[in-house]
Structures are given as structure tokens and as C-alpha cells.
Recover the amino acids of this structure.
């Protein structure tokens, strides 16, 4: 019988400001406000270059945050002159310096435009550019200082702001029908406005007076799926770069007088070109991480000596007032607060750092690490932070890590999936953080598979399972399985046209959930139904997929209850599935959801099953709820919340924007793991005990570092579970027992030392007769056996650097290990309950491995006969090449190096 919800669940808590920050032992539930995490960073997608009121060389950087902040920086030394918060803005891709020096900032969050007049004491809020549009993607001014901008998330409007009148005019939408479209690039010159759209690609000329529009068409060979990422007019040439994600792509040149695309320049990066230099014909841009010149007259380009630059977000010429930098000096800003200065006269260059405001970054992902600390990644700003629930210590580190979409503990490390390159990083908390070393990249999914957002990460035995959303502008996503010991991986489009946004693993099967939405800015999906699927990792095939809730386009995280039922929730509907019958047993929809109007939806909700009280927790629609597993009634527990999970200390961690809370639902112990002894000889029993679990909770056990399954155990009424197992004969050194909590996706682990085997019988020289290992552990070390070696049921055998003149046979052995052995005859090992390991050995005969259940490794061997493997569970590991003369059949024929 499932346990019922205790009385405190009738409490409904609303505004976080009304919550008590401390509680006595009897005051449950309680909330502790953790404050913000130390995740300040300079992330300035948009920036500009101009002059102060007295001609000072000023840089303008908008740091993303809550709210975003405009920093005014002196280019001469990088010092900050002013800073201004931008209420209602989360950041900016669009900063433009007008001919008179005024600075215009188009923002996202509420779609507002701001103006800063150099020397002013405040920034002016010019209001929402286009009502209903929350993102100003691009902004520019014409020769007369009139401002033009482009918007999105969906309707791709172009607007004009006239400083003379203070009036903002919407010039209309470019979106065909209701397809999501954004104006990513905009330029203005000669009485015309040019708008470039993403992801449906067009370059449109607009007459702002008459409203007339003309499609300029696409350059020959341009990828029609790649939107216009940036757009500039210099002289009478229009420059357009088409890209799905901002990565280096060709820059195309359009002759406005000839009305034709006339040139293509490969491998260009950044958001714009420089203004025209003092000679009236030269502009600068970045190609192949090198600053280049472009001649507007003869249309040639050439590299300068300045290399190591890439994503320039703002260009401009300034006078540094320094004889070492004569005349106009070119400045280019990066999106993280760095900038270069380059002298066109001397060729001298220098990299500098702007002291822009490091704005706090909002939460993007949270998880419990292998050390029990809370780890946090941020939206856009990047970097990681940790929080120690025991001491309250907060630490910022790994500032080089980009936006972390997902995190999970796997095999003693924290794995982080980052945007935009689909990088999978491994972080070892036991080692000091060091850029490029810890955390380090173990896989990158962008170039080969077009994957950009690794939202879903799950520990799956030997494998890290990774569910992704495709790069911006592209549909779908996929599933990747990475063997973190060998580094080998494979990618599959497991549900074509869908992205994979949730994963969990149980008893050898990976379960996943999808969203019908692909990369941001991609085509609107034609399908309406997200699915749940099952995938067999060993067979590398999808077993089934089910539409649990027709009409719902994105499913949230997945969790099993103590009865093995799978739960999840879309943004508004909870459901329970039986994975054996593939039937959806129960559903309930709590409110309508506007699927027809949203641009995209990825993870539908955060979900876990609380094993202490048998309640489903859901974080969705900025609220945290509990759901009764029988009635499916829900009760609101907390607001606001975007992220949440149950920690092994028994408490729930909640996050939203810049705020974090620790929630204690009731009096409950922390979950812990411990072994009976710190050191056990290989081949002998070890007992591991788990305490502080929920009554009846299941945990799945693995022995690492080689991910051997130890099965599943269930906690008793006191929340305690135990398992006694035999330490494999082929293991030495530190071993870790890892428990995966199926309800919470948490991980418990404890380590011990595997000592050398205790040998009941030792043979270390000539042995002239056949040998039988009848019981206990028989060890052959430097031995020569004249005849066969047989292993009786339950007995164990180790053969190290020894020769056997005859077959080696076992049936239902406790374990067999051959290392550096030479066997003149067949090797037949069947039904072993313990480890079977044959490495670095020579077998003059066939090898048969069948029905072994304690783990099989066959690596680095030479066999003059055939190799047959069948019914081994798990399948044999062949992580080093084998030289097999005869046929290879069964399991050993799959996945050979």
C-alpha cells in the first residue's frame, strides 16, 4: 500500500517573501532562503564604441543579468566610468552609437529600447518598441540619426524611432502566417531599411516612407536554412552573413546599385563590420580568427597581423590621445568584456579588458554533485558555482564554462552539458578547478551531429546518456550514449523530428521523453505529440515509443515510484505509465496551455518522486506542487520556482532567477552509504548498507570503476537496505559502490580497497597432473600445469603469467581470471556468478563464454580458434583489441574495437 500524504501537505505557501527563513525542529515544513549564488559575469552580446562629452574614447557594454546593466568604459585603460541598470531588460544583442554620439540599446525581457546621451546622469527608457514583442534583436541608425530596429520571438517586426519627434512607429511584420521569425540583422542607408530574418531566410529592402518592400533574394549557394545573423551597409555595399548559430560562415556582399549579390567571403565571425575608416574605402572584419581589411572600391580583402580574435560584437574608431597610438585607433569588443585596440597606421595591436559590471546570472541548471554539494550553472553568463548545504559555503569557479543546460553525477564526477557547442564536460570535485583541465571536455556534439543544447543527462551503467536539442534554426534533436571509460560514443535520431529533453535509466533500459520543438528559431513543428520511449543500450535500438498525452508538445523529467511506475508531467498534465505494458494508467490536466501560440518549449517540468511520503513533486509554470499518486490532486507548495530536486540530505533545493531556497518538508534523515570494512580481498564478500532511504525505496547498485551491476535492493520499513556481494577476482585498488535512487535520480556512493586475493590453494611451479579447483580460491602464479584445469561450481580460479597444457573449463564458478596466461586448448566458461576476465592471454583453441552473470571482460588476447559469446549479462566488455583467427559469434561480435 502506498503511504498517504501527511497533514502538512495541506499547507499552501505562496509568495516567497512571506516565507519564514528559519524553523525549529518541530516547525515543518520550513524554508531557508539561501540568497544568490556567486555567479557574476560579464556577458555582453551587444556592445558599441563611441565618444564621451569631451571626446573621451568610450566603450558601451550591456551585461546580461536581472536587470541588465549598461557599463560605460574608458578605452584608454579599461576603467569603468559609469554604470546604469536597465529595468525591465535581461540583456541586449543590439547596441548602436548614432552619428551624434547618442547610444541606443535594444533589449530582451520586455522588448524595450533605451537611450544614453554621453554625460547624462541617467539612461532614458524609450519604452517597448513593438507591443507584444519581448526581444529587440537588432538596431541601427541612418545618416540622419533615425533609429531602426528588428524584433522577435515570433512576428519579426521592423520599427522606427525618430529622435526629433520621440515617436516610435511599427513598420510592420515580416512573418509569413504565424511562423516564428525574428529580424536578426538590420541596416539603413540611402533612405532604405534592410532587414534580414531568421530562421526563414530573407533579406528585405523596405521603404520606410511608403512601406513598400522588395525581397533581394538569396546569394547563390547560400544555405536557405541558415538565417541572416548580421547585416551592414558600408558605402553602397550590403554585407550579410547567414548562420544557424553565429558560428563562422560566409559573408555575402550585395551591390545596392547593381541589385545583385556579387561576392562571398568564407569563415567570417562577429556581429558586424567596422565603420568606414578615414580613407573612405576601408572597413574591418574578422575572418578565420584574424582581423581583415576590406576595400569597398576594389572589393578585395586581406589579413592584418592581428590574430586570435573571433566574436567581435562592437567596432569603432577612437582617438586614444596617446602618441603610441597615432590617429584613429580601431577598437573591437568581445561578448565577455575583452577588447582589442589596433592601429591602422602602425599595425600595432593590444588585447585589453573592460571593467564592465559583472551582472549576476540567473539559474539555468542545478544538481547534486558526487560530493554532496549543490552545483549551479547560469543562463547566458556561464560559469559554475557550488553550495555546501552543511557549511553554507559558496564558491564560484570555472568561469570559462558556457551556459550549462544540464548536469548529472556519474561515476564519481559531475558531468555538465553546455550550449552552444553541445560540449559535455567532466568535473572532478576532488581536484582543483583549472581551465581546460578540470572541468574538461569529453565530447562535443555540434559539428558532427548538429546538437547544441544538452538538457537531459542520465547515468546509465557504463554510459552517460545525453538528450539534446538541435542547434538554433534546426528541427529536432537526438540521443547520444558516451562510454565515459573508453571515450567511445554513438548518436541516434531516436525519435525523428523530436528533441530529447528527459532521460532516466532502470534495469538496463533507458527511458526518454521528447519535445516536438527543435532549436530556437527553427521551423515550427508539424507534429503536436511529444512521446516517451524506451531504448536498449546493449542492443542499440529503440524498443518502443508511446504518446502519453495527445496534443501536449513537451514532456518533463521522468521518475519511477516504489512500484516501478513511470511518472512525468507536461507543463499542465501529469501522467503515470506502466513501462511493462506500455499503458498510460492515469492522467490529469490541471489547466489549458497555449501550444498554438508558443514559439518553442523544451523541458516541460521538473519531476521527482519523494520516497519518504510517496508523493510526486512537480515544478512547472513557475510553481512547485505535490501530486497525490492515487487521486492526482495537487497542492501548491512554493512560488516562484523554475528548478527543483530532492537532495540526499532529505531536503528540496529550489531555484528561480537569482534566488535559491532549501526546503525541509518533514523530519527525515540524510541518506548515506557505508561498507562493512575498508579493505576486502578480491573474491571475498563485502557488505554495503544504505540508511536514510524512504521506506520501500528501491536503489540500483553498481560497482565502479567498471560499472558492474550488483542488482537492485529495496529499503525496509526503517529506510535501510543492505547487500552482500563478492568482490570480483579481477579487481584491485579502490572500488566504489554506487547506488542510483530510482525515485529521485540521486546518487549515493561509498568506497573501499580491494586487496589481493586470499589463495586457499597456490600453485607457483610445475604441476604435472590435471588440476581441479574444487572450492575456495585457487591461484596459479608463474605455474606450468601439464593437463586440463577444471573449476567446480562456486570455486574461484586466478591464473597469472602461467601456462596450461590443456583446456580450461568451468561451470557455475564463483569467478575465473586469466591474466598473461598461455592455454594449449579450448577455454569454456559457463554460468559463472562472479567475474570472468581474460586479458593479455594466448589461447590455442576456441573460447566459449556463455551465461555468465558476474561481468565478463575479454581484452587484448590472441586466439587461434573461434570466439563465441552468448547469454552473458551484462554483455562482455572488449575494451582492447583481440586477435581472433577463427569466427567470432554472438555478443562478442558486437562493438568490437
Amino acid at each position: 500500500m502506498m503511504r498517504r500524504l501527511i497533514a502538512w501537505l495541506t499547507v499552501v505557501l505562496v509568495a516567497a517573501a512571506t516565507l519564514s527563513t528559519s524553523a525549529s525542529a518541530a516547525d515543518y515544513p520550513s524554508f531557508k532562503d539561501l540568497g544568490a549564488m556567486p555567479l557574476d559575469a560579464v556577458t555582453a552580446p551587444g556592445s558599441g564604441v563611441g565618444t564621451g562629452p569631451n571626446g573621451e574614447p568610450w566603450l558601451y557594454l550591456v551585461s546580461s543579468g536581472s536587470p541588465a546593466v549598461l557599463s560605460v568604459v574608458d578605452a584608454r585603460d579599461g576603467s569603468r566610468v559609469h554604470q546604469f541598470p536597465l529595468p525591465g531588460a535581461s540583456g541586449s544583442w543590439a547596441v548602436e552609437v548614432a552619428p551624434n554620439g547618442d547610444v541606443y540599446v535594444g533589449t530582451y525581457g520586455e522588448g524595450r529600447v533605451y537611450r544614453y546621451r554621453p554625460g547624462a546622469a541617467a539612461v532614458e527608457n524609450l519604452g517597448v518598441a513593438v507591443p507584444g514583442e519581448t526581444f529587440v534583436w537588432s538596431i541601427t541608425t541612418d545618416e540622419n540619426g533615425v533609429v531602426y530596429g528588428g524584433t522577435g520571438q515570433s512576428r519579426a517586426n521592423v520599427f522606427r524611432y525618430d529622435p526629433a519627434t520621440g515617436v516610435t512607429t511599427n513598420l510592420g511584420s515580416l512573418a509569413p502566417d504565424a511562423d516564428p521569425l525574428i529580424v536578426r540583422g538590420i541596416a539603413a542607408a540611402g533612405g532604405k531599411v534592410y532587414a534580414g530574418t531568421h530562421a526563414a531566410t530573407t533579406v528585405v529592402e523596405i521603404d520606410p516612407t511608403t512601406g513598400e518592400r522588395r525581397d533581394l533574394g538569396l546569394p547563390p549557394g547560400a544555405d536557405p536554412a541558415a538565417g541572416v545573423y548580421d547585416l551592414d551597409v558600408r558605402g553602397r555595399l550590403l554585407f550579410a552573413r547567414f548562420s544557424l548559430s553565429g558560428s563562422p560562415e560566409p559573408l555575402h556582399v550585395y551591390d545596392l546599385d547593381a541589385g545583385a549579390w556579387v561576392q562571398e567571403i568564407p569563415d567570417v565571425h562577429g556581429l558586424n563590420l567596422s565603420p568606414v575608416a578615414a580613407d573612405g574605402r576601408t572597413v574591418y572584419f574578422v575572418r578565420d580568427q584574424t582581423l581583415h581589411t576590406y576595400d569597398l572600391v576594389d572589393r578585395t580583402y586581406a589579413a592584418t597581423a592581428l590574430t586570435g580574435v573571433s566574436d567581435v560584437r562592437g567596432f569603432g574608431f577612437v582617438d586614444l590621445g596617446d602618441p603610441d597610438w597615432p590617429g584613429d585607433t580601431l577598437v573591437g569588443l568581445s561578448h565577455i568584456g575583452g577588447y582589442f585596440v589596433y592601429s591602422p597606421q602602425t599595425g600595432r595591436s593590444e588585447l585589453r579588458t573592460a571593467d564592465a559590471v559583472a551582472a549576476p546570472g540567473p539559474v539555468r541548471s542545478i544538481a547534486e554533485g558526487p560530493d554532496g554539494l549543490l552545483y549551479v550553472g547560469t543562463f547566458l553568463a556561464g560559469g559554475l558555482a557550488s553550495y555546501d548545504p552543511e557549511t553554507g559555503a559558496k564558491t564560484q569557479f570555472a568561469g570559462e564554462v558556457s551556459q550549462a543546460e544540464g548536469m548529472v553525477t556519474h561515476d564519481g564526477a559531475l558531468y555538465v552539458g553546455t550550449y552552444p557547442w553541445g560540449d559535455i564536460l567532466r568535473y572532478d570535485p576532488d581536484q582543483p578547478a583549472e581551465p581546460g583541465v578540470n572541468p574538461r571536455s569529453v565530447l562535443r556534439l555540434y559539428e558532427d551531429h548538429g546538437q547544441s543544447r544538452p538538457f537531459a543527462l542520465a547515468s546509465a551503467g557504463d554510459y552517460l546518456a545525453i538528450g539534446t536539442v538541435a542547434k538554433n534554426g534546426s528541427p529536432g534533436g537526438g540521443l547520444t550514449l558516451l562510454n565515459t571509460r573508453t571515450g567511445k560514443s554513438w548518436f541516434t535520431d531516436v525519435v525523428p523530428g523530436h528533441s530529447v529533453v528527459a532521460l532516466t535509466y532502470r534495469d538496463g533500459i533507458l527511458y526518454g521523453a521528447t519535445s516536438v520543438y527543435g532549436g530556437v528559431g527553427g521551423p515550427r513543428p508539424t507534429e503536436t505529440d511529444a512521446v516517451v520511449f524506451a531504448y536498449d543500450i546493449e542492443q542499440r535500438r529503440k524498443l518502443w515509443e508511446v504518446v502519453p498525452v495527445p496534443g501536449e508538445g513537451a514532456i518533463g523529467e521522468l521518475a519511477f515510484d516504489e512500484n516501478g511506475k513511470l511518472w512525468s508531467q507536461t507543463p499542465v498534465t501529469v501522467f503515470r505509465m506502466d513501462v511493462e505494458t506500455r499503458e498510460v494508467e492515469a492522467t490529469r490536466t490541471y489547466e489549458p496551455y497555449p501550444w498554438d501560440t508558443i514559439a518553442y518549449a523544451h523541458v516541460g517540468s521538473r519531476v521527482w518522486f519523494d520516497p519518504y511520503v510517496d508523493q510526486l513533486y512537480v515544478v512547472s509554470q513557475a510553481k512547485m506542487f505535490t501530486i497525490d499518486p492515487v487521486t492526482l490532486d495537487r497542492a501548491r507548495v512554493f512560488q516562484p520556482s523554475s528548478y527543483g530536486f530532492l537532495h540526499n540530505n532529505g531536503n528540496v533545493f529550489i531555484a528561480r532567477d537569482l534566488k535559491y531556497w532549501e526546503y525541509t518538508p518533514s523530519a527525515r534523515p540524510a541518506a548515506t552509504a557505508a561498507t562493512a570494512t575498508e579493505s576486502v580481498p578480491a573474491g571475498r564478500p563485502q557488505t554495503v548498507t544504505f540508511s536514510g532511504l524512504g521506506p520501500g525505496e528501491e536503489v540500483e547498485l553498481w560497482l565502479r570503476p567498471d560499472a558492474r551491476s550488483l542488482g537492485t535492493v529495496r529499503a525496509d520499513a526503517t529506510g535501510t537496505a543492505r547487500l552482500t556481494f563478492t568482490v570480483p577476482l579481477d579487481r584491485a585498488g579502490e572500488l566504489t559502490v554506487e547506488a542510483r535512487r530510482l525515485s529521485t535520480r540521486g546518487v549515493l556512493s561509498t568506497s573501499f580497497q580491494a586487496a589481493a586475493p586470499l589463495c586457499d590453494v597456490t600453485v607457483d611451479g610445475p604441476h604435472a597432473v590435471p588440476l581441479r579447483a574444487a572450492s575456495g580460491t585457487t591461484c596459479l602464479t608463474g605455474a606450468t600445469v601439464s593437463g586440463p584445469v577444471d573449476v567446480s561450481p562456486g570455486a574461484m580460479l586466478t591464473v597469472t603469467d602461467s601456462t596450461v597444457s590443456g583446456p580450461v573449463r568451468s561451470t557455475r564458478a564463483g569467478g575465473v581470471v586469466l591474466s598473461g596466461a598461455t592455454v594449449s586448448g579450448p577455454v569454456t566458461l559457463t554460468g559463472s556468478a562472479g567475474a570472468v576476465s581474460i586479458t593479455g592471454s594466448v589461447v590455442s583453441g576456441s573460447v566459449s563464454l556463455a551465461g555468465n552473470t558476474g561481468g565478463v571482460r575479454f581484452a587484448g588476447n590472441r586466439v587461434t580458434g573461434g570466439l563465441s559469446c552468448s547469454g552473458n549479462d551484462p554483455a562482455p566488455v572488449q575494451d582492447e583489441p583481440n586477435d581472433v583467427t577463427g569466427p567470432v559469434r554472438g555478443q562478442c561480435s558486437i562493438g568490437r574495437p
User: Anything to note?
Assistant: The longest strand covers residues 260-269. Helices lie at 446-449. The chain is about 0% helix and 50% strand.
